Amino acid sequence: MNQHFSQAILVLIVIVLGSLGLQPAAASNLPFADPAFAQVWQRTDALVASGKVQRGYYWGPTPSSGPLQEAYAEGKDGKRTVQYFDKSRMEINNPNADKNSKFYVTNGLLTRELVSGQMQVGNNAFIARDPAQIPLASDLDDHAAPTYASFAAVVNKPEGKLLGNVVNATIAQSGSTSSDSDYERYNVLQAYYEPTTQHNIPDLFWNFLNQSGPITENNQLVKARLNDPWFYATGYPISAAYWAKAIIGGQANTPVLIQAFERRVLTYVPSALTDYKVQMSNIGQHYYQWRYGLPTAQLPPDPGVGCGEGVGGPNAGSVFLVWRDNITIRRQVGCPLNDIPSPPTTVVRHSFERGLMVSVQTKQSDPKAARYVYVLYNDGTVQWFDDRYVDGNSDPSLGSPPNGLITPHFGFGKVWRENATVQQRLGWATSYERKLEPGEYRFFERGLLYQSGPDINNVYALVGSNLQYASWSKQTVALYSTTCSAMIGGSFGKLWLSSGLVANQLSCPNIGSGSAKVSIQHFQGGHLIYVSLNEAPTHSSIGGTQVFYLFKDQSAYADFNFSHNEQPVAVNNPPAGLYAPGSSFSSQWASFGLLRERLGWATAPEQPLAEGDYQFFGKGLMLREGGKIYYFYSVRLYSYAYPSYWQVYNEPR
């Protein structure tokens, strides 16, 4: 085969796998949580992982989490054994059930939970959270593609029997649907009608769910149905199939057909290679991020541990209970501060037809002191205004509100009158503004929680910064940067501002980066980052000379006890096409067998980075190299002695 043609095929495979969140199989030391999990995985995926069969994974190349015990009312002692994979979560709900049953191991109803926002903790027990704002069939940095939340408006809407009809329905990120005859050129036809949920399944998906192929059964290679019965892995369809345009493998405007099933999401990419046109999306990864707020790696320590005794206090109120009972919020805001805010602060809320305004005034004694006004729209988006003037005058040109509604006053009215977009999106006020009492709000290390109504679950989190937000639980909005004294531009700023998760994990950008030397080297099993600071950057937890190990399972570790050796330590000659570690890393690589085993040889020489190619943050570092942005951060504030985590994104333009 022509070498260039072979390379082109490889590139296409990488694009297709990357578009669905798939990466080549990486070495993993994570054990299977139960022998039954291993048996289910081996049946379909062991052959794929070994390269003996060319098809998409049903679960993933390896487990992506360790064994976990998650709350489940009917489980043993109120818990059940689960384990996450790229494409699902395996579960054992009843360890005393028949181990020979096909349904001894099940996979979770993850799609239902992600779309509805109802996290299941028992057969009939749920915790209310927000639907997942995570793209379900595109690159994770695609901010315009449909998300699980987009499907909330279309699931469980019965269809009539449409067998033989061409599929041309479309869905937008807003959840609105339409039809587009341009998609009829792919000739996808409805092939099966499921009466249980009253949805049609297109022929491509129906063939995929009923296909036979090589599997491993009783340690023998046989040909059988991959799904037996056909709904074993996916469950029943809960939506129609919809077309959308998405960023897939970095390619914008790629057509993709998406259908939500109870347990999985199926996608069809017409431009993909034949064996990868139909895939199961990486719903296991998506669910794990939604539930825990972190990549699928070792769970970090609970950030609520170590907050000190008596953090509840006499004025804790309902918001403290929400913080206490929600680990995701604890990860967001950190430990609570004293019961009495310091400096004295006034918090006021104002309800509108389509959202809320919240005002945080930094000094009660000065009516013209800094007053930050947050506009929280019902669609989950947020705007922020620095309003330093309290104005109670009305504007007759705006007309009178309809019966039962109110013209907003004070600082809220000023923001509302001066911004036509705010007027249009919020509508009129539905009640007068109300000052919150201590106990209805509480300050934390990285933000503010406040209660919006009589229901203690109706609590908002204003976290960190003035431009970003992310939705974490039911009616909970997290803003970023009210406490950040510096903002950043360029691609680092775009990534930080475009992802609430990134902004929270890294904290605020530093005012200055000090004098630093930074370099990166890529290895077979990860990356090494060398950082040497003559002057620690302001507010940063990184100081001195450190080497950060970024392993392929997204775990990271920092070496404080590092002695830089300008001369490379002699190592054996690397295999052809690979490299020895550079001078910044060779001493550790040569000294520690575990490091060598996990990283392997370098795939490129050590690369020094210019000052504009890195940016320090309060809890981590971003660096840019080869069109990618790497960032790593600690799960413990100001401490890298504990396991940390890292991610890589395409550089935003």
Describe this structure in words.
By secondary structure, the chain is of the alpha+beta class.
Gist of the model:
With 653 residues, this protein is α+β, with helices and mostly antiparallel strands. It is built from 13 helices and 35 strands. 42% of the residues are buried.
Record keyword descriptors for this entry.
653 residues, alpha+beta, 9-stranded antiparallel sheet, 13 helices, 35 strands, 32% strand
Mean pLDDT: 75
Largest sheet geometry: 9 strands, antiparallel
Helix percent band: 10-25%
Instruction: Provide the β-strand percentage band.
Output: 25-35%
Number of helices: 13
Radius of gyration, in Å, reads 26 Å
Strand order of the largest sheet: 31-27-28-29-30-35-34-33-32
C-alpha end-to-end distance: 36 Å
Low-confidence stretches: 1-28, 294-305, 339-343, 465-485, 635-643
Shape: globular
What is the count of β-strands? 35
Structural class: alpha+beta
What secondary-structure arrangement, pairings included, does this model have?
Blueprint: H1 3-19, H2 35-49, E1 68-76, E2 79-85, E3 88-92, E4 106-107, H3 110-116, E5 118-122, E6 125-128, E7 169-171, E8 177-179, E9 190-194, E10 199-202, H4 203-209, E11 212-217, E12 220-225, E13 237-248, E14 251-261, E15 265-268, E16 278-280, H5 283-292, H6 317-325, H7 327-333, E17 346-352, E18 355-361, E19 371-377, E20 382-387, H8 410-418, H9 420-426, E21 434-435, E22 441-444, E23 447-451, E24 459-463, E25 465-473, E26 476-482, H10 490-498, H11 500-506, E27 516-523, E28 526-533, E29 545-551, E30 555-559, H12 586-591, H13 593-599, E31 607-609, E32 614-617, E33 620-625, E34 628-636, E35 639-650
Parallel strand pairs: 24-26
Antiparallel strand pairs: 1-2, 2-3, 3-4, 5-6, 7-8, 9-10, 11-12, 13-14, 14-15, 15-16, 17-18, 17-21, 18-19, 19-20, 22-23, 23-24, 25-26, 27-28, 27-31, 28-29, 29-30, 30-35, 32-33, 33-34, 34-35
Helix pairs in contact: 10-11
